[in-house]
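It is worth pausing here to work through a concrete case rather than discussing structure prediction in the abstract. The textbook approach is simple: state the sequence, then state the predicted structure, then interpret. We follow exactly that order.
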Amino acid sequence: MSEKDFHAMFTRLKALLTPYAPSLNVIHDEPGKYYLETGYSEKWKKPLFFGSAIVQKNYVSFYLMPVYMFPDLLVGISPALKKRMQGKSCFNFKQEDEVLLTELEALTRQSFARFQQEGLV
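Step two, the predicted structure:
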C-alpha cells in the first residue's frame, strides 16, 4: 500500500468517526491520527476512549472501544470484518473495501448508540 493509499484509507476511516465528534471530545485531529473520547465519566472516574483512526507502518488501524466494553456488539459481524480484527477493539485495513466499510460504519453507529444508552455520552 502506498502512502497515498494509506492517506485515502485513513480519510475513509476518519469519516466513520467524525459524525460523533460534536458529542465527544476530539483529542487528536492531525494527519494520520484522529482520536475521540467521551467527557468525564462519573462511573469510570475518567474520560473514556471511544475510537480512533491511525496510520501505522503497514496498515491503517480503526479502534472502537465500545466493542471491547460491550462484546455483544460484535455478535453477527461478518467473518470478513472479524478477520480484520487485531485484538479486541482494533480493525486493520490495507485497502479499501466498500462492503466492510459499510459494515464498520453500522457497527460504529451501534457503538455510539450503546454509549448513549449506558449514559457514557
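Step three, interpretation. The beta strands are 25-30, 33-41, 46-55, 60-64, 85-86, 90-93. The longest strand covers residues 46-55.
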